[in-house]
Amino acid sequence: xxxxxxxxxxxxxxxxxxxxxxxxxxxxxxxxxxxxxxxxxxxxxxxxxxxxxxxxxxxxxxxxxxxxxxxxxxxxxxxxxxxxxxxxxxxxxxxxxxxxxxxxxxxxxxxxxxxxxxxxxxxxxxxx
Length: 128
What we know:
It is built from 5 helices and no strands. By secondary structure, the protein is mainly alpha-helical. The model has no long low-confidence stretch (mean pLDDT 75).
């Protein structure tokens, strides 16, 4: 136990000293990058009626859904892979199968929502 504590302390001291010794350059100012002119043009374009549909948020939910599904697929895949490795390492076949099934269902919902919707409507029309 004492060896683990000592190793953790030495590692953290080395990391902190490496961070303290690293060169710290100051980032360039925004004005030097010419961003103020670009930002002003974007505001003018957004406020004008003819400029790119200023204030149009009609499909914001669809765009947000597309953005989240774009991020969620790799995150769910990596998380499921880590969980699956842990379950297989402990030789827990039931948990492994559960992780695979839940991951596949989640990815189907994210990658093909129209298919899931039509499948659910088909089941509902048959049952009800």
